[in-house]
Design brief:
The chain is α+β, with helices and mostly antiparallel strands. The protein has one domain (2-84): Alpha-Beta Plaits (2-Layer Sandwich). The protein has 4 helices and 3 strands. The chain has helices at residues 14-20, 26-34, 58-66, 69-79, and strands spanning 2-8, 37-45, 48-55. Strand 2 (37-45) and strand 3 (48-55) form a beta hairpin. The protein is globular. InterPro entries: Dimeric_a/b-barrel (IPR011008), Rham/fucose_mutarotase (IPR008000).
């Protein structure tokens, strides 16, 4: 499944947010993969962030990461850069699909 999310940075947090993502802990990357994610890309346009996550199950991904100390620490660090705390909950399962290129 593919999930798209939108988040927004605090004014002036762009450089620090990008720098932090050059230091994503290997333990967190391994946990994200173990929880079923095969791809997670983040794009930035000014203060707007757009995430696309390919995973087996978004509910499973969230559940498996929720209690991990490395994820808790990472989310705490990221919250310092975000204008609104990210709601990764399954009830906020991302942006609705408007259009997709049909299969050939």
């Amino acid at each position: 499944m593919r999930i798209a999310l939108h988040t927004r940075l605090l004014p002036g947090a762009e450089a620090d947010y990008q720098a932090a993502h050059r230091e994503v802990p290997d333990e967190l990357v391994a946990a994200i993969r173990a929880a079923g994610a095969t791809e997670w890309t983040i794009w930035r346009s000014g203060a707007d962030l757009f995430h696309v996550i390919d995973c087996d199950s978004y509910d499973r991904l969230l559940a498996e990461l929720a209690g991990l100390p490395v994820n808790i620490a990472w989310q705490r660090r990221m919250s310092a850069y975000l204008a609104v705390p990210q709601d990764y909950s399954a009830t906020n399962a991302g942006l609705p699909v408007v259009w997709r290129l049909p299969d050939a």
